[in-house]
Amino acid sequence: MEDNNFASVGVIVLKDNKILLVRHTYGSAAGKLLNPGGMIQQGELPTDAVKREVLEETGVTVNPIGMLSIRCAPNNWYMVFLAEYVSGEPKSDGVENSEALFMDCGELLRRDDATDTVKTLLKIALGKKPLIPVDTGGGRLLFAVNEDL
């Protein structure tokens, strides 16, 4: 499948008070630590993109729990999800990132080589309940505050 060039996902994965990070190799975040993520492919649900992107970039398998935030601009939307760790050890993909690792959450917040975005997303993840995906049928997901709909 090809990327849609409009919508992308980011993922916050927490495990034992550590956050999964990658060191980006290109663009304005080159050399910086940030959360895994990427473009949603045509016909792909955001939650499926979360699983695919994290596995491709880090070798880690995750299960999306819910949406933490969404950033909307006229030319793109960026949806950030909280995902639970399932299995795997972080390993760089050698292309989009030069490093993949779990880092203590407190250490990340003190680092100068981490993006402001990942620091903000971590604070949101630690303090808020994500919007839970609810299958409404027909391949559609609704993200809601209450999972008991």
Remind me, CATH topology? Nucleoside Triphosphate Pyrophosphohydrolase
Question: How would you classify the helix and strand content by structural class?
Answer: alpha+beta
Major sheet: 7 strands, mixed
The domain count comes to: 1
Give the averaged pLDDT, no decimals.
91
Please mark out the parts with pLDDT under 50 across 5 or more consecutive residues, or reply none. none
β-strand percent reads: over 45%
What spatial form do the alpha-carbon principal axes imply?
globular
Q: What is the radius of gyration computed over CA atoms, rounded to a whole number of angstroms?
A: 15 Å
The CATH homologous superfamily: Nucleoside Triphosphate Pyrophosphohydrolase
CATH architecture: Alpha-Beta Complex
Number of contiguous helices:
3
> How far apart, in Å, are the first and last alpha carbons?
33 Å
Determine the fraction of residues in helical runs and give it as a percent range. Answer: 10-25%
Give the helices and strands as they follow along the chain. Answer: EEEEHEEEHHEE
Using the coordinates above, name the CATH class.
Alpha Beta
Number of strands: 9
Could you outline the blueprint of secondary structure elements for this entry?
Layout: E1 3-15, E2 18-24, E3 33-34, E4 37-41, H1 46-58, E5 61-73, E6 76-87, E7 97-104, H2 105-110, H3 116-127, E8 132-137, E9 140-144
Parallel strand pairs: 1-6
Antiparallel strand pairs: 1-2, 1-4, 2-3, 2-7, 5-6, 8-9
Structure description:
- The protein has 149 residues and is of the alpha+beta class.
- The chain has one domain: Nucleoside Triphosphate Pyrophosphohydrolase, CATH 3.90.79.
- 21% of the residues lie in helices and 48% in strands.
- Strands 1, 2, 3, 4, 5, 6 and 7 form a seven-stranded mixed sheet that branches. The protein has a two-stranded antiparallel sheet with strand order 8-9.
